[in-house]
């Protein structure tokens, strides 16, 4: 008889209000681990679309009621056996929450990008570039893994990185500001593209990808300039998203997982928008190292050339070997 696979329980939340970033990267991690571990999700009041996203990825989902966060941890701990690995991705899962879940000896992995409290977790992963590791406070024996070499992106993108990246057609632009974009930065980006394209003598194509929790689509019914063709895509599979990305030599995206996914499949130029406070370190490091440019201050198509930077340096960090590195971390936890 085959030995039972170790269970990994993922605790994360996502909504139109807070975005889908925690769920997207946790689901990507579960996809990396699913062949070796039994993965399932615990999410507070998931929307039908979010529930469908998790279940279509092949994972069981338990819906949690809204409650005081420490009460939630205490109640959850009572049902643990002690041999499960718990993955926490969210800013509410603070030191006390982790301590309550440690009462039966469970291993804990935290996915983090704000280092706002001490971690009693066994492992902390922050896949942003340029992390100042001295900002983290870990318990004795805790380990920290940082940088794009541990990027939590979907297997299809990692496989494409191994197969070879492509650079799309000049003057074809990819735009995606995440799964929810609660502040509707998407609208500002599209308006800026239209404004800055008014004096062009050539046509440009904008491939806009909207996430399942984006709620402002009616605001995008704008008067287009004759130089811009806007194509809107929604709820694309990973495979179709890769296809759209690889048509584009330019990406305008948030300083988040979507940036990693574009760099895994393309060597095109990246323009970033900071759409949430937790993206600050990622955004700053990308600009300081000339891996990307700021969209609102650096995107000027009228100069005749979009692709002014060589993005290979950042794209090379997304080498497709992230899954094996992550597997090594988790397999070491259960030895």
Automatic annotation (TrEMBL):
<keyword id="KW-0378">Hydrolase</keyword>
<dbReference type="GO" id="GO:0016787">
    <property type="term" value="F:hydrolase activity"/>
</dbReference>
<dbReference type="InterPro" id="IPR020023">
    <property type="entry name" value="PseG"/>
</dbReference>
<protein>
    <submittedName>
        <fullName>UDP-2,4-diacetamido-2,4, 6-trideoxy-beta-L-altropyranose hydrolase</fullName>
        <ecNumber>3.6.1.57</ecNumber>
    </submittedName>
</protein>
<feature type="binding site">
    <location>
        <position position="154"/>
    </location>
    <ligand>
        <name>substrate</name>
    </ligand>
</feature>
<feature type="binding site">
    <location>
        <position position="261"/>
    </location>
    <ligand>
        <name>substrate</name>
    </ligand>
</feature>
<feature type="active site" description="Proton acceptor">
    <location>
        <position position="22"/>
    </location>
</feature>
